[in-house]
Structures are given as C-alpha cells and as structure tokens.
Design brief:
It is built from 21 helices and 27 strands. It has a six-stranded mixed sheet, sandwiched between helices. The chain has a five-stranded parallel sheet with strand order 4-3-2-1-10. A five-stranded mixed sheet has the order 19-27-26-21-22. Helix 6 packs parallel to helix 7 (162-177). The longest helix is centred in the middle third of the chain and has 17 residues, at 323-339. The structure holds 1-deoxynojirimycin (NOJ).
Length: 718
C-alpha cells in the first residue's frame, strides 16, 4: 500500500540534512502552556516529526484527558509546513482505543460480539469523531494475545485466540483507515504492542515473557500479519522482553521478522519512553546506547523519549549507526505522511457528525457484546410485572462501566443501571437504596419484599488497563457476601457483571440463577444490559476468553496441545482432574454463550473430503456445511464456529483451533445452512523456523456452538 509513495518520499529525503532527518524520528508530547513557545521553536527548526496528543500528560488510560484544542494543532501544523526547513507536516497521534466522545465497548467486549462488520463500522464512527479533533493517528488496534486475566490490559485485547485476534485486527484497521486513509474522516492505525506484551509472566504489567518461536509464529504473530495485510500503516514496539531480548532493542523481532519476513513497509514507533527503558532492562548502559540499539533494531520513531533527537547525530558521525538506517526510517515515516494526505492538505477539516447515529451504533455494539452465561429455568427474559430488589455496587454508578482508555469521554456521560431499569419497569417495582454508598448492609428487607433479586456486580474500570494488574480475578469479598445473602432468601437471583476482564466463576456462579456478563461496554452498558434482561434484545455474545473456576487455574485456554496425559482437562477428556484439589476444567469455555432460544446442529458435511496437497497448494478448498435449526421461541443470532484438529503432525498441534465463525440470524423454527471454506492458509501451521507447512494426512473438523463441540467430520490431505 505504501510502495506507491516511495518515490516521492525519496525525493523529499534527498533534500534533507541529517538533523532534519532525525527530527522526523522524534515524537513529543503536547507541551503545556509554559513551554509552548519553546516547543514551537523546535517545530520551526524541524526537530519534531509527530505529536503525542496528551493534554494532561501520562494518562495511561485511567484518567479522562482534557479537551483537544484544534486551533493549537492548526497553528503547530502551520509552523511545520510553512516555517520549518522542508515544510514537512506533523502527524498527531492519540490513544483512541474504543471510542472518542462516543464510547463503545472495550476491545475484549468487541471481540465477544464475534461481529466483524459491526466492529469495522464502529471504528469508522470512532475515526470520524477523533479526526474531527485533529487526530490523524490512533494507537489501536491492540492485538496482544493474552492467557492471563490478571493482566489489566486484557480488556484492550481480542482475548486468547489468534484467529479472533486476526479478524479483529482486520476489522479495526479497515474501520479506522477505510479504503483511503487520506480521507479527512479516517485515521492511521497502529498495530500494538509488537510483540508478546500480553504474555507477561504472572499477568504483571511490563514483566518478562518467554515465547518460543513456534508459539510466536502460530499464536502471537497472526493478528499482526492480519493487521498488516489489512493495510495497517504503523506498528508500536512493546515494552516487554522475549526470552531475555527487549523487543524495542531487538533486530531479530523488528527488522528480521516484522519488516523483512512479514514485509511490513510502514513505520515502527516505540512505546512511551520505551527506548530509555532499555537501560532498566539491562541491555544498555546509557541513553545513547539505547538509541543505537533501538534504531538498529528497526524502531523508526521515538515516542517522547528524547533519545533519538539527542544521540542519533553523534551515533551516525561515529559510525555506530549507518546513515542508511536513518534514511530507511525517515522514508517510512514520509510514506505514511504522504499516504495520510498531509502533504496535500495538512489541516483538520471537521465533518458533520450524526451523534445520535453514533450513540445508536454504540448501543448496538454493547448489545452484541454481552454474554449470557447462565439462565436456569429460563429465568430471563424477566417479566415486567414483578417487583425487583436491586443491590450491589453498580446499581447507581454512571462511569464505572465505561471502560479504561476512554480518555475523551464526557464524565458522567453514561446512564446508571438503575436509570436504565426505570425505562423497562415502573419505579415502584424497583426496590433499591437511593444512594450508591449504602448498597450492602441495610437493604435486605428489599429482598424480602421482591419477587426477583438483581445484583449489579463487577469491577470499576479504574482497576483495569495499563499498570492495573490484580491478583484476584473475582468480585470483592463484599460482593460475594451479598450474593450469598441474597441467595439465602430463597428468591431467584440474577447477577449482572460489569467487568473488564474474565473472572474465576467458581463459588460465585452456583449461587446465581442467571448471569449476564455485560463487560465495560461504553456509555450504553446499562441500557444494553436492560434490553437483554427484559428480552428486547436476545443475547448473542460469546466468550473470546476462557472463564476458569479458580484464579489458580490460570493459564487456561482452549487451544492447548495435548500432553497425552491428564493435564488441564479442558475438554473433560480425562476422568480425573489434573489438580487433586478440584476440577481444573473451565467454568465457561472459549466460544461459549447462551441465547434465549436453542439451536440444533446437523452433522457437518464436507463437499469433497479428500484433496491432494498439490490441489490445496494451487488454491482448492474444502467446503464444510452444517444445518443450524432454531428450535426455540425467539428469532436469534447464533455464532457458528469451525475448529480443526490435526491429530498427527510433525509438531504437536492444538486440540482445537478456531478457523472460522459466522454470526447468523435464524428465525424461530427456521433452519439455515452455514458453510465455510478451508484452504491452504487454514489447515497448516508455522514451524519454529517460521516456515509455513501443510502436511499430508487427516484433519478433524468440528462445527458447533463453542470450543467444546464434539460435532465433527474428517478431511484428508492426500
Ligand atoms: C503506553 C501504552 O502502553 C500504549 O498502549 C499507549 O499507546 C502509549 N502509552 C501512549 O499513550
């Protein structure tokens, strides 16, 4: 995609001095009032290539930032284009992660929707709002595969599965960048954090990782490849190390794998102060050494570190950094600026925004994301003529369910769960404490008077996101006590969970008759949850991550290889659990979620179950079809999932691997035939060397409603 801008970029490059080139590699944060003039001087001298738009600085996603001042960015852009030596425009980047002013679900919630069209459309709205406020570039999609919900940043990622990650990557990049990223209502996307950040040991943010190349290629890279195939113009290097090599200083991970092997032709930016971090990681003594390591590794732009601007010139002069390395970095940055159209029109041109339409889309996204985990005796949807006792810390909260990394949200912009409930049933049927701070002790008499108890449980978004790892993936002890007490009255109890991360459900789910996992789903979390609770919307989200019984069962994920002995019992394949002190299988598996209806699957049928390897290499595909019948009382969406298992291969392969999904609306009583095509790219895998291989032999194909499905057939590659 960027190749067509190469000639123009080289032409500009040929007129630049070394100092001006290094200026392009320098991203600085928005200055505060006191140093604005000094900052403008730097721009005038050509010492700045990009601005990290932060108003209050160092938000790390857990604070609302200030308002963006378009006039300031226009002025800076005018200085860059009219007064700096080569008139090169600046790129303005910001963390627009799951919404700008209109806040959509957290990315993990988006993943639970299994609705890629909706995700793409949502990100197109998000881009439009942010582009109206001078943002050219968002630091999204975040594509860190994660097996440990203790990690606070699991909320920003697509979950545990490489295929879901790849689909999310494609949808977000296409939504953000569109077909023509130079359009005024589009932004540049940034696939982050390259790579392995989600594998931090123990879920501790910024911690070390160990990732074998076999796993790197098969699990961690697919989402990045998909983002790049979809046209992602930038990539952010991650803070973590892999096997003792900090990624930001690693030529192996950045230059050799990302740029040379995968063929990424955009530019790589470091994460915030990630270059100087190399001293802390013990691979460099000075910031000068850090700069040398990072630029030689292939990190093209320095995020606010000040390292490149301070040391690259002398590093080139001393011969420690070759000028060709600098030229390549500048060329990449110029190509991206050209692709964004900044050389033709560098200024923000606000377009009309239909805020009501965006609100409706955010509501739809929230409805699509929520997952019904339990519904004993079809308790849900709830009848509207009953009395409900409402308890729990999230009954009156407004902001807690919005989600971390929503720095441009309007504070208190969300509706409380209570307010949303009043639109479904009259207030006199809703028994609740008037104030949020007295939810626990005083109001059990409500439970006595009510027919049904609804508990609003979960975690505030401020306990998720960057630097927000937790040891207990659960609800608080207060909430557990609340569940038990509510249970003791013998009434039906519904738990609505407003969580950013999956939690360990053991000891919690048993005491609830119905469970709706609502995530942190943006401004419309409460409305969407109420729509589902009262049957205006039929739930259709599916888990993009495993829900374990106990936190101590982590890591627990579906696409594990078989040891041949009882290890984690994910599929109930062994009569005893691996842990002598309890069942180690998941509480709710990957891909799981209930509906208000039931679906019946036929056995999968393969059109031609035997193809030769040569035919497959030449592009022939196996077509697999299944009939899905809605045998319940509601029109509803089903996410039909196709998994494969290669029973005998050179390398051990996962017990199941997702290779496709299709979210289809099926009317009550109706049957739909759902088909998938599996070809060369789907049935093989990467060897540890990074070579892709498809082997001869049998492959089991499973098609069903979640990762535990046993509905299978077989194909043979001859
Ligand atoms: C650090 C975070 O890791 C990254 O995701 C974010 O984009 C940058 N800071 C900029 O805020």
């Amino acid at each position: 995609m960027l190749k067509k801008f190469e000639k123009r970029a080289l032409d500009i490059l040929s007129k630049m001095t070394l100092k001006e080139k290094i200026g392009q590699l320098n991203q600085l944060s928005t200055p505060d009032k006191h140093n604005a003039e000094e900052f403008k001087e730097k721009v005038r001298r050509g010492e700045v290539g990009s601005i990290l738009m932060s108003v209050s600085r160092g938000t790390a996603g857990n604070k609302a930032d200030g308002t963006i001042d378009n006039a300031f960015y226009d002025e800076i852009q005018r200085i860059a284009t009219e007064e700096s030596p080569n008139g090169i425009p600046l790129i303005f980047g910001r963390d627009v992660i799951h919404g700008h002013h209109t806040v959509f679900p957290i990315p993990l919630g988006f993943a639970a929707s299994f609705n890629t069209e909706m995700i793409k459309d949502s990100y197109s709205c998000i881009a439009k709002e942010a582009a109206n406020e001078s943002v050219h570039w968002t630091f999204a999609p975040m594509l860190d595969l994660c097996h440990d919900p203790r990690w606070g940043r699991i909320i920003e990622c697509p979950g545990e599965d490489p295929y879901v990650g790849a689909k999310m990557a494609e949808a977000i990049v296409k939504g953000v960048q569109g077909d023509d990223v130079s359009a005024k209502d589009k932004m540049l996307a940034c696939a982050k954090h390259y790579i392995g950040y989600g594998a931090s040991e123990g879920g501790r943010d910024y911690h070390r990782t160990e990732i074998a190349d076999y796993s790197l290629y098969n699990n961690y890279l697919p989402a990045f490849r998909a983002a790049i195939d979809a046209g992602a113009t930038t990539v952010m290097s991650s803070f973590n190390d892999i096997n003792g090599q900090p990624v930001t200083g690693s030529k192996y991970y950045i230059k050799d794998i990302l740029k040379d092997r995968i063929g990424f032709d955009g530019f790589v930016i470091s994460d915030y102060w990630g270059i100087r971090l190399l001293t802390g990681q013990g691979v460099a003594e000075t910031e000068r050494d850090c700069s040398s390591l990072a630029i030689n590794a292939g990190v093209d732009m320095d995020m606010d570190d000040g390292c490149y601007i301070n040391y690259l010139e002398s590093l080139v002069e001393s011969g420690e950094v070759d000028i060709s390395v600098i030229d390549d970095a500048v060329k990449r940055i110029l190509m991206v600026k050209l692709a964004k159209g900044l050389f033709d029109d560098p200024y923000c041109k606000p377009t009309d925004i239909n805020w009501e339409e965006h609100k409706q889309k955010a509501l739809y996204a929230a409805q699509e994301s929520m997952v019904l985990l339990k519904n004993n005796d079809n308790l849900l949807p709830l009848p509207r003529d009953k009395k409900f006792a409402l308890l729990g810390p999230f009954v009156h909260e407004k902001d807690a369910q919005i989600g971390a990394w929503s720095i441009d949200r309007t504070p208190n912009g969300a509706e409380s769960f209570y307010d949303a409930l009043t639109k479904k049933v009259p207030k006199n049927q809703l028994l609740t404490a008037p104030r949020p701070d007295i939810q626990y002790d005083f109001h059990y008499w409500f439970v006595d008077m009510a027919d049904i108890v609804i508990l609003a449980l979960g975690e505030p978004w401020s306990t998720t996101g960057e630097s927000q790892s937790v040891a207990m993936i659960s609800v608080t002890e207060d909430q557990k006590a609340l569940i038990r007490k509510a249970r003791s009255y013998g009434k039906k109890v519904v738990g609505v969970f407003f969580n950013g991360r999956p939690i360990a459900m053991g000891g919690i789910a048993e005491d609830l008759d119905a469970i709706l996992y609502a995530w942190h789903s943006g401004y419309d979390t409460a409305t969407a949850a109420c729509d589902i609770l009262f049957g205006d919307v039929v739930p259709s989200g599916r888990l993009p991550v495993t829900m374990p019984r106990l936190a101590s069962h982590i890591p627990l994920y579906y696409n594990v290889t078989s040891s041949g002995r009882p290890v984690n019992n994910y599929y109930g394949q062994h009569s005893n659990a691996c842990y002598g002190d309890g069942v180690g299988s998941p509480y709710y598996p990957f891909g799981y979620g209930l509906s208000y209806t039931k679906f019946e699957y036929s056995a999968p049928v393969v059109e031609a179950d035997n193809l030769s390897l040569d035919e497959i290499k030449a592009g022939k595909k196996f077509k697999v079809s299944v009939d899905v019948k809605n045998i319940g009382e509601y029109d509803a969406k089903e996410t039909v999932q196709i998994y494969i298992h290669d029973p005998v291969a050179v390398m051990m392969r996962p017990i199941k691997e997702l290779k496709g999904f299709d979210k289809v609306l099926i009317g009550k009583g109706e049957t739909k035939t759902v088909s998938f095509e599996l070809g060369y790219k789907d049935i093989g895998y990467y060897m540890p060397s990074g070579e892709y291989t498809v082997e001869k032999g049998k492959i089991e194909i499973y098609v069903g409603e979640n990762s535990l499905t046993e509905n299978k057939t077989m194909i043979t590659v001859g």
